[in-house]
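assembly run, all chains below
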Amino acid sequence: MDFLSLVREIMPQLLRGTIVTLQLTGIAISMGFIIGTFLALGRLYGNRSISAICNGYIQFFRGTPLLVQLFIVYYGLPRYGIRLSSFTAALIGLGLNSAAYQAEYFRGAIQSISEGQMMAARAIGMSKFKSIKNIIIPQALRIVIPSWSNELIYTLKYSSVAYMIGAPELMAQAKFITAKNFRYFEVFIVVAFIYLVIVLVLSRILDFIEKKVRIPGLQVSGG
Amino acid sequence: MSEDTKTILKVENIHKSYGKESILKGISFELKKSETKVIIGPSGTGKSTLLRCINGLTKPDKGHIWLDGLDITTPGINIDNVRQEIGMVFQNFNLFTHLTALDNVRIGLIKVKKLPKKIATEKAMATLEKVGLAEKAYHYPAQLSGGQQQRVSIARALAMDPKLILFDEPTSALDPELIGEVLQVMKNLSESGMTMLVVSHEMGFARSVCDEIIFIEKGVIVEQGPPDVLFSCPKNPRTREFLHKISELYGES
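ok done. output:
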């Protein structure tokens, strides 16, 4: 079978996997965004114990392999009566993992904002909460976009690890196909190409957003 | 007591140390309505710490501060409400980087004073007009000169209708040619009856505008009095020496 007819034959199955990959990435990155924001704020503005808990979370998820985390969630939790589908387990693992990285990016962004911004907000009578919400977060979100773009791309690529627990994403579909036809080279070249296209499209979108929300004088220094 | 001579700020026996180093050792003074007082003194002498105590950014270890009769050093007081009534102008302007000049002035009115957007906008524009920057309303801080940024930050403080505005070395981060426009705005403000406490070594400003100069050194008030008196016949030799030094440095114009 020539390359093009092979591609035509395997494409529907790979696209089904691609959709699962996109769902995994989209939901995990959003979950990580919400949890990561709270982790970063907790670490920076929380009292000592909250800060320590957030820091512990970040250290654990950054300091252990994603695959180990996925195995704990998927194979480990049933022992405690928590049985998750491989898709849900992959989502939770990826989301919790991404939260730790996103928290660090947010923390870096927040710390790059001069202390004077908080002081000035407090000086006009804003509470700490209002200052964070109205002054610090809007600036931090703009500053974080470039490093956050990287995290999105990493999450997309790392979602391929989820095939190890049987989540039916792009990589898993490719493994199914090659188990039948043994055309590893062609199939994985196509898979690589699909990942690449998604990454390029996402980068374009994020570049666009970055330009759209850019404010003079508010960029990562030197970036 | 008539309305004009009402005491707006009363500072009594303020002490503050950081670790073993004591910065303020019993500062007391008063500021009546519409008065402008200028605090001078060598660097590291506690001037900024004093301002930070007054607007609650730092807690004094001992002593009391009253704002318009209310003891704001009482434990448990809502410091956010107090700060609404005390404007603060910083050395480094500290304008909100992500907001236009208009939004910098407006955000406190909307988020803190809860004014409707339309009224807040009108008020913010009127205040920018007062500092001569209405035409820069839609510029971001990075698009303004230092002098313009500082004038916006004065507008931001002024728009909140504070009882008192504190100035922490408002011109010392500015290029010399930009100082004049900021001092002019401060002068207008003082003449229009705003109560002001200014940490600054701009002696020209002090001489022409302020009611009293307070000379602080090593955490205590060495001498205080009207500028004429302090310049012509200071009681303390340290005051004479210091005034001489800064007049040389900054000029007197």
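The radius of gyration of chain A is 21 Å.

Chain A touches chain B through 23 residues (CB under 8 Å).

not gonna interpret more than that til we talk
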